[in-house]
Each structure stands twice: as C-alpha cells, then as structure tokens.
Design brief:
The structure holds two protein chains of two kinds. By secondary structure, chain A is mainly α. Chain A is about 80% helix and about 0% strand. Chain B is an alpha+beta fold. In chain B, helix 2 runs antiparallel to helix 5, helix 3 runs antiparallel to helix 7 and helix 4 crosses helix 5. The chains are: A mainly alpha, B alpha+beta.
C-alpha cells in the first residue's frame, strides 16, 4: 500500500501532510488580508523579490565574479615568466567588492536618497551624508584589503627569497 | 511487442503519470538543465547544510521576537497592527514591565540579527541555485508540490527581508502597510520553513556528518577538493580549480554577518556606539544637548501647533473623578526620575533620565487607584499612534511616568512637550507624546 502510494506520489505520505500544512497556513494568512486593497501589491512584491534575487541579483554577481576572475587569470597569464608565481589577488578584490555590494543592498535608501520626506518627519534630520559615508566605508574596505595583500605579497617574497638562498 | 526496459540505477524513477515526467525531462527549454556551467568546487550538500544549520538555529529567534513585538503592542486592546489576525498570534498575556530593557533587547535582536542573517541567506541561496535551473524540475507530484513550497519559502523570506530593510530606513516605496505585510509574510514564511526543515532535516544531518568541520577549518585553498557527487545536483560536474577554501567561504559569510552587526548595533545600544551605525537613520544624534537624542516623530510632522502646548494646555484626567491640571500644577506634584530606554519597533533605542509624575499618582488623583487600564490620548489630531492603552502593570509600575522633563531640562517639542508617557519595556510609539488626556478605567 505504502509502496504503491510512494510510486504514485513520489514520496512518503508524511511529505504531503507537511506540505498541506504549509499551504494551509499560507492560505489562512492570505485569507486574513483577502479584503485588503493592497493584497495584489503585496503579491507582486512577493514574486518580485524572488525574481529580483534569482534572475537579476544572482546572475549579476555571478557574471561579475566570472569576469573578475577571468580578467585576473588573463593578467596572470600575460605576466607569467616575468616574475614567477604570486599571491593571488582575486579574493582581495572579491571581499571588499562583496562588502560594498552588501552594504549598498542593505542601505541603498539612504545612499540614493529614497524616502527623504518620511526620513525627515521621523528623525527630524535631513537624509544626507549617507552616500559620502558609504563611499568612505567602501574605500576603507578596499584599502584594508590592499594593505593585507601588500603584507601577504611581502611575506611571500621574503619566503621565496629565503627558500632560494637556503641550500 | 517491445517491453519497456527495466528500471536501472541510472534511470530516474518517475511518479504518476510517468509518460508526462519522462516527456518533460526530454524537452529542456534552452538554458535549462546544463550542469556544466556550475563551476564552483565549493557547492555541495555539506556547505549548504552548514548555512542551513545556522539559519535553522537563528531564524526562529527572529520569528519569535517578531511575534513578541506584536504582543508588546497590546493586541488584547485591539491596538496591535494588523488587527484581527485570528489564530496567527501568541496567546494574550500582559507584556511585562521588567526588565526595562526587555523591548530594547527584543527589537534589537529582531532587527540586528535579522540584518546579520542576510549574508547567510544569500550564501544559502547561492549554494542551492543550481537546483533552480536544473531539468527536469520534477519527476513526480511530490517534487512539484515541494517546489511550490520552496517558492513560498524563498519568496516570503526575501519579502520579509525587503520590507524590513526598507522600513527601518523610512523608505515606504512598497506602498502597502508595513506591519500588515511583514506580519502575515512572517506566517507564510514560518509554515514553509517548518515544512522545509521537516523534509530536509535527515538530508542535512547526513550531509553534516559527511565531513568534519574541524578538518575543513584546517584545509587550505590549494587542498580544497569538491564534495563527492551527490544526488541533489549541488556538486559541480566540471568544477574549476578552487579560489577559496571552505574555511574561506565560511569566514567570508560569517565575517559579512559580523560586519553587518558591527555597523548596525550602534542604533540599538546607543551611547558611544551609536555612530557605528553609520548608514542607518539612528546612527546620528541631532546634537549633544540634553534633548538631542533620536526622535521618532517630529512635532511638525505630527502637526502639533505651539499654541496648543503653551500656557493654555491642560492635562485632562478621568477616572471616577474628572479634573484638569496645568503643567505648573503637575510640576508641583511629587516628581520621580527614572532612567529608562525608549525602544522603537525599528530596532533603535536610546536611554535617558526622565522626570515626571508617576502614572499611579495620577490614577489615585482621578479616584481610580487600581485601574485595569489607562487610555492615553495625544493632542495630535491624526496618526495611528496618537493614543495608546496601557495595561494595569504598565500604569502602576513605580517608574511609569508622565514625563515633563528629560536629563534635567524641559522636554523639547519633538520629544513631546508639555508631557509624554514613559513606561518600562513599552514599545516606543506607545510612549505617547504631547499627552492631552488620560482615562483610567476599572474592570
């Protein structure tokens, strides 16, 4: 009986039971706002959030990362032979770039100046200075990353030259 | 008559109706189902399960603090938003007044932890994204339904993140009521979350046992090998050479979460840490005077006319008696000072020294020394938060004040001059400003 069910449905009956619970709860939540004139807008934002992540944000950052690593690989290939292997620079760009992207994603309303009226009504302060502070933060992230890279590269060179001198 | 070939290990098993699923599998739309293009050598059930485990432990905290915040608004008085939520709430209980920082902690956890989890959520989604583009999307009915539930899970999670992130920055571009959307969205999410956990928990446990975390934390990039091929299609069939170890990936995601924590927690703990929240509206103070701490709504925005708060202002009290008091008469009463935080639903807070008349003294003056609730109304003419009902424990707490002064000076107009409510652990918007009347009710 259970085997026939499983070959028909594709999983244990409990699987279906759990998912019915999930949809029942979602249905009940939607039913509570069924008369809300904003419901279509909420649904739009719901679906829009998935599309924005899966079909816009993910392809964008994946593409950016591939372009970056591709470009760095090409650069390395060009320089190969002139000065041996080096400390890879990729993650020293990736990490601050991710930091910049993440902070922009989370704090863009202030950075681009969206919602300045409600901001002033709520805080009594003009919505200003966010873009400058964000740019400073991004600059600091890249600077720290570059410093760490410089230290690593120096250590690496020191290490390889000492390897070269020891018999 | 040719018999259909016996199913082998290689051939996937289809549910009912098998011809449909088989036909679907044979017709991948362009761009779907190519496994070659997933190149990361890090993707695999183990890494996904690590992110999953972190979210499994932390997301319930965010959900629960959200529900507690709803309870703190006093849904038993019909003043929590959204109203009429049916079964979708905790049982009614009187929100405590102690410790005074309870709501500060609750909302700090809800907002800051919620923000810190965003890098983890993005990493988790990154780790499973090949499944989104895999083909066929399903081989049986069970997988179709499960995929629909994943749409609810991811949609609701991103919806909660988007509305929450926008709300704490006063960007109401979404154009619907934040409270309503965020509250019901959370319920849609939690159902899908529980179902996902119930279905995937054994997979997660198995994957976590497949590798040693300690060993991974000692493995360098050069020694990083892809996970063994898996039945889920997460592990790349043609992996690139690693540019990051699993240790590096975990550090990156964990570091991202910590970084977000560092640049946001200042709005919750305030003081010298406040400027750390350099990209949030509550990372700044208006100045350094005694009234220069963050405001929730300015007097101008609330439409408070200076004439209505001048010498003609009276506090109207009603209980078993009715009376009206001028500000001078209130100042002549026994005054009490309490150091209390104001904590906003948006996760920011500020702790100040408030001086004023105890609410219980006002209740006694109105002839209702043991009120079951107190209904406070502002002179503000419009707005969702121009009045609030206080519970008995909130009215009678010795630190619950009708504050007239703060940090030794009169309240500024933005902080509610001539008088405002301050009650331990009460959500900030229920600490009504520009109070016009208080009605003490008995059961």
């Amino acid at each position: 009986m259970l085997r026939r069910w499983t070959s028909f449905y594709g999983a244990n009956p409990l699987h279906l039971l759990v998912l019915i619970g999930c949809f029942a709860l979602a249905g009940y939540a939607v039913w509570r706002v069924i008369d809300n004139p904003s419901l279509p807008r909420m649904a739009l934002w719901f679906v829009g959030a998935v599309i924005a992540h899966d079909l816009i944000l993910f392809p964008l950052y994946a593409l950016a990362d591939r372009s970056l690593s591709g470009a760095l690989r090409a650069l390395r290939a060009l320089r190969r032979g002139r000065d041996g292997p080096r400390v890879p620079v990729l993650n020293h760009v990736r990490v601050p770039a991710l930091g910049a992207g993440l902070t922009f994603l989370l704090f863009f309303p202030g950075i681009v100046g969206q919602g300045s009226g409600t901001h002033r009504a709520a805080t009594g302060l003009a919505q200003e200075g966010y873009a400058a502070r964000w740019l400073l933060l991004v600059a600091a992230l890249f600077l720290v990353s570059a410093l760490v890279y410089a230290i690593r590269a120096r250590r690496y060179r020191a290490g390889s030259s000492s390897r070269a001198t020891t018999p | 008559m040719a018999r259909p070939p016996a199913p082998t290990d290689k051939e996937p098993r289809y549910g009912f109706p098998a011809p449909l699923w088989r036909a679907l599998e044979r017709r991948p739309p362009p761009g779907m189902g190519s496994t070659r293009r997933w190149r990361s050598p890090l993707r695999g059930p183990w890494l996904t399960s690590i992110f999953g485990l972190v979210l499994l432990v932390t997301i319930p905290i965010v959900f629960l603090t959200g529900l507690l915040s709803y309870a703190a608004y006093g849904p038993q008085f019909g003043q929590a938003i959204p109203g009429g939520v049916g079964w979708l709430r905790l049982p009614h209980f009187a929100w405590p007044t102690s410790p005074a920082w309870l709501y500060q902690l609750n909302q700090g956890l809800h907002v800051i932890l919620g923000l810190m989890l965003i890098p983890v959520v993005l990493a988790k989604l990154w780790s499973v994204v090949p499944k989104l583009f895999s083909w066929p999307p399903a081989r049986n009915i069970a997988q179709v339904i499960e995929r629909l539930s994943l749409l609810l899970l991811v949609g609701a999670l991103l919806f909660e993140i988007a509305t929450g992130v926008l709300n704490i920055q006063y960007d109401y571009v979404f154009g619907f009521n934040f409270y309503t959307a965020h509250y019901y969205g959370a319920w849609v999410f939690i159902g899908a979350f529980v179902a996902h956990v119930a279905i995937k928990l054994p997979t997660m446990a198995r994957a976590l046992r497949s590798r040693s975390l300690r060993a991974e934390l000692r493995t360098s990039t050069a020694d990083t090998e892809p996970e063994p091929p898996d039945e889920h299609g997460l592990v790349a069939t043609h992996p690139d050479r690693p540019t990051l170890s699993r240790r590096g990936a975990l550090r990156l995601v964990g570091g991202g979460a910590l970084f977000i924590g560092v640049i946001t927690i200042g709005q919750s703990i305030g003081g010298t840490a406040r400027p750390l929240a350099l990209l949030l509206p509550r990372g700044r103070s208006p100045g350094d005077g005694p009234n220069d701490f963050p405001v929730n709504k300015t007097a101008t925005a609330a439409g408070i006319e200076p004439a209505s708060t001048g010498g003609a202002w009276r506090l109207r009290l009603s209980g078993s008696e009715q009376l009206a008091l001028s500000r001078d008469e209130l100042l002549a009463m026994s005054l009490h000072t309490a150091r209390l935080p104001i904590a906003c639903v948006e996760g920011w807070s500020t702790t100040q020294d408030w001086t004023g008349v105890r609410l219980r003294d006002l209740a006694a003056l109105a002839g209702t020394p043991q009120p079951s609730s107190a209904h406070v109304m502002s002179i503000q003419q419009a707005g969702a938060f121009r009045g609030a009902v206080l519970q008995a424990n909130q009215t009678l707490h010795p630190d619950s004040l009708l504050a007239l002064r703060v940090n030794g000076v009169d309240l500024s107009s933005d902080h509610g001059f001539p008088a405002r409510i301050i009650v331990p652990a009460l959500p900030g918007v229920h600490c009504t400003k520009w109070v016009g009347s208080i009605e003490f009710r008995s059961a």
